[in-house]
Amino acid sequence: MRTNRKGFMLSLLFTLMMSILLAACGGNGNTVEPAVTEGAGAAGTEATAAAQAEPVTLEFWTIALQPTFNDYFNDLIAKYESSHPGVTVEWKDYPYDAISQRLLTSTASGKSPDVVNLNTEFASQLGSKGALLNLADYLTDEQAKSYFDGIYNSTVFEDKAYALPWYTGTEVLFMNKKLVEKAGLDPANPPQTREELVEWARQVHDKAGVAGYAQQLVSKLFPIDGIPILNGDKTAAAFNTPEAEAMISQMRDLMKEGVVLKEDADFSKQIQYFSGEQVAFQLSGPTFINFIKTSAPDVYANTIAVPLPTGKANLRLSNSMNLVVPEKSKNPEQAVEFAAFITNAENQTAFSKVANTLPSSKASIADPFFTESDGSLEAEAKVASSQSLDKATDYMVGVPSAADINSALARGLQEILMNGADIKETLNAVEKEVNNILSQGS
């Protein structure tokens, strides 16, 4: 999360794209009215039926899903086309780093795609600039409420919904059962809150002789404790508060005690510490399992997974992929209907089973795939992750300069916790830096 040339170029690319997208949004006489009126949904309406009387081709873009999931999507598209005569879906897949450039180029040439797969950060940025369709005008209340509230609302601004949540992921708490029991703790009754996790970590340190956990000093530590990074309209820093001072002060004290390792530990370091039984806990996504299974099979065999304890904000951070409809789609009604089809409960459940991801649909997790465990660590992590979705929300700053802001916060935490800098003075300096970043990007 360092500020670098790549981050600058991405920010510049976004700025250029915004100027082209916004220029394309007006003055062309091609205003499209929403397909539905109050209380009605896009699917099955007379407007949609009339629109489909003429052949329609929908251009559907995804990120890095070919060729692994070709069979799934080819079957899905065939199913949709067979139930929607006259509609043809052209599926195109691009690498993660290429999709923003592709979107820029296509929009500039007047050939906007109809449905695009974007992460929450980029979707929220585009939506806030008016470059995406407001899906709230097209969805029924039932459709909007079919997704987990926190994930759906991650791209809702001023009552405008700019994305449909698709597949997602959340972190869980991995515990070394041997170390936990050595400390006199009951792994069958795991900690529910961050405060309880701290007490467990302290007892592990005192009685088992190892640290509780390692962590990376990153900006997400603020929203976990309910501390917003920016103000509501994203024009100024909002993190320099007494609550932030208290959070960082507690973290510093825990590191001094040895309850939390005094290190800015990236993912590879966290794997190393857990595999070496230098810590009892790991806060991570299920992909962590693959690494300890290979590096430390004995530790893997002795590890269990439970839902991640929540901080003061009582939420868990997710990392979601979404589907959006660009404002310049020539087929908005059909595009929204197709996006809703892909993200409905039945199709989200099917994709999660194929891709080993989590769904954002509430109804999906009632499926036994997400509720039953065969006792393996992988199954435990899947069930624990699924149980976390009711408190999940996507973490993002939501501005083009997000990478620079995240980097500034990370450096501030490093200065305080690794180098002993004064908390208040450092927060003041980082606040000034973030406000400068925002002013330069406006």
Question: What's the structural blueprint in terms of helices and strands?
Answer:
Elements: H1 5-24, H2 46-51, E1 56-63, H3 70-83, E2 87-94, H4 99-108, E3 115-119, H5 120-128, H6 141-144, H7 149-152, E4 156-157, E5 160-161, E6 164-165, E7 167-168, E8 172-176, H8 177-182, H9 194-208, E9 213-215, H10 221-224, H11 242-257, E10 260-264, H12 267-275, E11 281-284, H13 288-295, H14 297-301, E12 303-307, E13 316-318, E14 321-324, H15 332-342, H16 345-355, E15 358-359, H17 368-371, H18 377-387, E16 392-394, H19 402-417, H20 423-441
In short:
Residues 1-23 form the signal peptide. The chain is α/β, with parallel strands linked by helices and 442 residues long.
DSSP strand content = 5-15%
Distance between the termini: 21 Å
Give the spatial strand order of the biggest sheet.
2-1-3-14-6
State the secondary-structure class.
alpha/beta
Overall geometry comes to: globular
Number of extended strands = 16
CATH T-level fold name of the largest domain = D-Maltodextrin-Binding Protein, domain 2
**Helical segment tally?**
20
CATH level-4 homologous superfamily of the largest domain: Periplasmic binding protein-like II
What's the pLDDT, averaged over the residues? 88
Just name the CATH architecture of the largest domain.
Answer: 3-Layer(aba) Sandwich
CATH level 1 name of the largest domain: Alpha Beta
Roughly how many Å is the radius of gyration?
Answer: 23 Å
Provide the low-confidence segments as ranges.
1-47
